[in-house]
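Review this today:
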Amino acid sequence: MTGLFDMGGQVAIVTGSSRGIGKAIALRMAEQGADVIISSRRQQACDDAAAEINAYVGRDAATAKAANISSREALQELVDFTLEKHGRITALVCNAASNPYFGPMAGITDAQLTKILMNNIVSNHWLINMAVPQMLERGTGSITIISSIGGLRASTTLGAYGISKAADMALARNLAAEYGERGVRVNCICPGLVKTEFARVLWDTPEILQQATAGSALKRIGEPDEIAGMAVFLASRAGAFTTGQAIVIDGGATIV
């Protein structure tokens, strides 16, 4: 009998997994027995992350395949590569995202807004549509979108990013309703402030960090590994009855 969180026999694609939350998710999935595809924009960064994960788990669990989420063709190559190597994709984690602008909505350029919406919403839509057909054929699969508590609250500096993350939650709910009868589950994880390079401007700015932690129950920011466990839960037997949800992991920032 396998454990609730066992992922033996599973194959997971994790985008944006050469560092930060994505890398932590890939490592913990590999630790639980999954084969994982490490993907981000630069092949060398993917190779390095895969080597580190393989050394940690003591087997060739991770394979690197670079893909820029802004390119539909690159995402299709990522899916094709995974299917050619493993024959299936059982878990997809849409973690990669962009935020090229920090400031009020009135100051954002059309190009910046378009990049946020394309990379944080449309690319997820593309990748899911590419990966889901073989899940539906097998009658099982898990899709997890890494959203944000930015999609649950207003911001005077991260408004466009928050809009995109709110849309990700709606995307997950709609797809969960569409695919549920055929055994495919779709959920969002909504982290609060986590210590990643992507969020450096927030936790490396004393005033912002103080404001973020003062307004939370735990009075601190999170670590990437504290998000990874939920991704394993959602992709494993433990999460088999969970779909269409936006699960908040924020140290209590949204309850105060």
